[in-house]
Amino acid sequence: MMVPSLFGWTQKTENKMALEPIKVPSELPLGKLQEEVHNWISKHGVRYFNELTNMAQLTEEVGEVSRIIARRYGEQSEKESDKTKDLGEELSDVLFVVLCLANQTGTDLQAAFDKKMNVKRERDHDRHHNNEKLK
User: Fold this and answer.
1) Looking at residue 19, what is its pLDDT?
2) What is the CA radius of gyration of the chain?
3) Beta strand extents in 62-124 (DSSP E only)
């Protein structure tokens, strides 16, 4: 079926990722997490939500983290109902959805993270030490 996109019309594909094994090194920390999420989706979640739904979920979860941070550590007052919210649990929700998005898009997060850290080590080695705003 053809569907509209930003660049005209495109072929809509079905999300079959829950049935396909992920292809990331599961002996590495992020690969192990990706595999764990994939196994949970395969056994309990039926299939991945589509990428747009997961992006909306990610936005929602980041919003929940933001609410806790703004009220607990920022200048907004914390509502009584928010005082029992667990920041770690909300951050884990964000991580879960990020792992889902990585799995369904075929992204090896460990490789991507390692590459990003190498860039940061080289590009930003002295950058923050020389930033007057941080002194």
Assistant:
1) 47
2) 19
3) none
Which residue did the predictor score with more confidence, 95 or 79?
95
How far is 117 from 74, CA to CA, in rounded Å? 29
Token pair recorded at residue 91: 């951050």
Q: Is the pTM of this model over 0.90?
A: no
pLDDT higher than 90, residue 1: no
- The whole-angstrom separation of Cα 100 and Cα 21 is 13
CATH of residue 64: 1.10.287.1080
CA distances 10 to 52, 73, 91, 126, 129, Å, are: 15, 45, 35, 45, 47
Q: 15 lies in a domain?
A: no
What's the half-sphere exposure (Cβ side, CA atoms, 13 Å) at 119? Answer: 6
Give the count of domains, the chain. 1
Which residues form the domain of 86? Answer: 26-134
